[in-house]
Write a structure and sequence with these properties.
about 500 residues, mainly alpha
Length: about 500
């Protein structure tokens, strides 16, 4: 298997394990050990720090991906890498000053609906700083085509940290109030480990001279920072707005549903870690043939794998929610369907986001992101009032669907390449047929047994139909190797 598929399936395993740990945390430990109020608080703090993260990082992690492969010798790379790690300081220093100066004002604003938030304002900024520099050093490793260990730190480490801390809360080793501060400390431990690993892969000779293309680097970082800030609104604005309109426990119910739905993007999160540097390399070398190959193959492979995850989640969602101790979480079933569908659409776009972010026309990402952010904000403002948390999910689905289509048309216009083919249609028909088939099938069994049987049947039928459709050589090769026991970690 090629490096993309090899590291992708390893990353899928890592993310799947992380999702499993996260499921235990999200569905059982959080609701039981922290209860809805503190669980909603943690969701709000982490979501708000994610909104701030692009501002803090100032696009540095994407800048590494775009420019690293454009340098032809080590001296140029050393100069570039020595400079890029200081770029986040352009925003970190003024943000720190503003937080110190206006801490009380910020706290009062964020805690209008839920006063519990006021005591944890600093957590938002501290986590944003740690996460930003982690992404910088993770990109440092990814451009060396080493994504697996960093992916472990990105996906499994924080969930294991939360798991351990929740156990400590249960055993009264730490309090619910201290949980948030301990979690913040673990984010900085993760950053330290990532830094050490990245420097072990590539240790530049520190140079105090700026790269010759520093103007291009800063311009790119500035535009990506603006685009990333706007794009992050699409990801987390719902978790920020719901507590402003509903009791904070609704944020917990919504967060669980979104957590379940985002399982659909596991293959994308796995593949993008390794494919994005390859997309940047193809663009830097003007290799349109390789770029088109990466675009179409990533699209069909992600659609196939994400399609399986989509089916497994939505066919099993009713018995799954019935297993939860609090029946109120089950009110968010429609959230699961809409968010998972939006993720499936995004996965079908393949490496399109990487193309937009690293091509010569990367500046278009800013208006796209701003328009998406404005759209989702106003839709949330209207639809949350009408449909509560279902309205937030519907806003996301509408915005993702419309703008993904627009982006596909734009790339087609600029580069004359498209992610879709007749194989995409075949896979889509298979997904729809299996979904509606199982919607009409009901087993009178226990919830656990029903989930087990559904999963086996869906996986077997879907894999068989995909294999027979011959939609992807990589997937067919993977199935053959799996059946022959030739796969190795």
């Amino acid at each position: 298997m090629g490096i993309v598929f090899n590291q992708s399936y390893k990353n899928i395993i890592i993310i799947s394990i992380a999702i499993l740990i996260g499921a235990i945390n999200t569905l059982y430990f959080y609701p039981v050990f922290l209860k809805e109020e503190y669980y909603g608080l943690v969701v709000f703090l982490l979501a708000t720090s994610n909104l701030l993260m692009p501002l803090v990082a100032f696009g540095s992690q994407h800048t590494i991906i775009k420019f690293y492969s454009s340098y032809s010798n080590k001296d140029e790379r050393d100069s570039f890498m020595s400079s890029v790690i200081f770029i986040p300081l352009l925003t970190i220093l003024p943000i720190t000053f503003l937080v110190i100066k206006f801490h009380d004002l910020i706290g009062n604003f964020l805690s209008i609906q839920n006063p519990i938030i006021e005591s944890y304002v600093w957590v938002i900024f501290l986590v944003a700083f740690a996460t930003s520099y982690f992404e910088v050093f993770y990109s440092w490793a990814r451009v060396q085509l080493k994504s697996v260990f960093g992916n472990f730190l990105k996906e499994i480490f924080p969930r294991l940290s939360i798991f351990s801390l929740l156990i400590c809360v249960y055993l009264n080793i730490i309090t619910k109030e201290d949980f948030v501060w301990w979690l913040t400390g673990f984010y900085y431990l993760r950053l330290l480990i990532m830094m050490i690993y990245s420097f072990s892969l590539y240790m530049p000779k520190i140079k105090f001279s700026l790269p010759s293309n520093i103007k291009s680097i800063l311009t790119y970082s500035f535009f990506i920072f603006l685009a990333g800030s706007a794009a992050s609104i699409l990801i987390d604005i719902d978790k920020f707005m719901i507590p402003q309109k509903e009791v904070i426990s609704q944020t917990a119910f919504y967060a669980v549903a979104v957590f379940i739905a985002t399982v659909v993007e596991i293959p994308g999160r796995a593949m993008f870690q390794i494919i994005n540097p390859l997309v940047a390399k193809a663009l830097n070398e003007n290799d349109t043939k390789e770029l088109s190959n990466l675009y179409t193959k990533s699209s069909i492979n992600l659609l196939i794998i994400a399609g399986l995850f989509f089916l497994l989640i939505n066919i099993n969602i009713d018995p799954f929610y019935e297993l939860m101790s609090n029946p109120s979480y089950g009110d968010a079933i429609w959230v699961v369907l809409m968010i998972s569908l939006s993720k499936l659409i995004l996965m079908s776009f393949g490496c399109g986001p990487a193309i937009l972010a690293t091509a010569k026309f990367y500046k278009i990402t800013l208006p796209f992101s701003i328009l998406m952010a404005i759209s989702v904000y106003f839709l949330n403002d209207v639809l949350i009032d009408i449909y509560s948390i279902n309205g937030a999910a519907l806003s996301t689905l509408l915005v993702v669907s419309i703008f993904t289509f627009v982006k596909i048309i734009y790339i087609k216009f600029k580069l004359s390449i498209s992610p879709y083919s007749v194989h995409s249609l075949k896979v889509l028909l298979i997904i729809c047929a299996i979904y509606f088939l199982f919607e009409f099938i009901s087993f009178s069994l226990s919830n656990i047994l029903e989930i087990f049987i559904n999963t086996l049947l869906i996986a077997a039928i879907y894999s068989f139909l995909i294999y027979k459709s011959k939609s992807s050589e990589a997937i067919n090769g993977f199935i053959k190797n799996l059946l022959k026991g030739k796969l190795r970690l």
